[in-house]
Amino acid sequence: MAEQNNGAAAEQAQFIIQRIYVKDVSFEVPGAPQVFSEAGQPQLDLNLNQKVARVADGLFEVVLGVTLTCKVGEKTIYLAEVAQAGLFQLSGFDDRTLDMMLGTYCPNVLFPYARQQVGELVAAGGFPPFYLQPINFEALYAEGLRRRAAQAQQGDGVPAEGGQA
């Protein structure tokens, strides 16, 4: 009987992808066409960010932002920016699990789409292919939790949830 109750509770948690879409995209080559003859080793700088917004009860928009900047020396060769978004229906999760789902699972769903967009932008700009390597969103989420706990502890002297005094 207890197994039936646990099964019923587990069935209540739902994760549904409503829609995946490109929210914003930009590609700039500020020094074209001269940059195509630039000599030197290109330096790539990758910046990731994530935004979560509650759209309605149980409906969340998650936006994974990817910015790739290629420079030779101090000169920007190209700048690719993609804001890959999704609408996700999440219900039946406790607050901690909901936060984890929005911080890890949703970006993992969006990442392949963002990777494809960045790769296509770079290629369409006339540059050698760029393959965005896989990202460990679970590790990034854990680091974010650690930083939040440290800030909370410094801010009021009270340990964060799960922290030790």
TrEMBL record:
The domain of life for this entry's organism is: Bacteria
On assembly, the entry states: Homotetramer, a dimer of dimers. One homotetramer interacts with 1 SecA dimer.
Q: Which InterPro entries match?
A: SecB, SecB-like_sf
Q: Where in the cell is it found?
A: Cytoplasm
Kindly provide the name given to this protein in its UniProt entry: Protein-export protein SecB
Q: Which UniProt keywords apply?
A: Chaperone, Cytoplasm, Protein transport, Translocation, Transport
What molecular function does GO assign, one term?
unfolded protein binding
Q: Which GO terms describe its cellular component?
A: cytoplasm
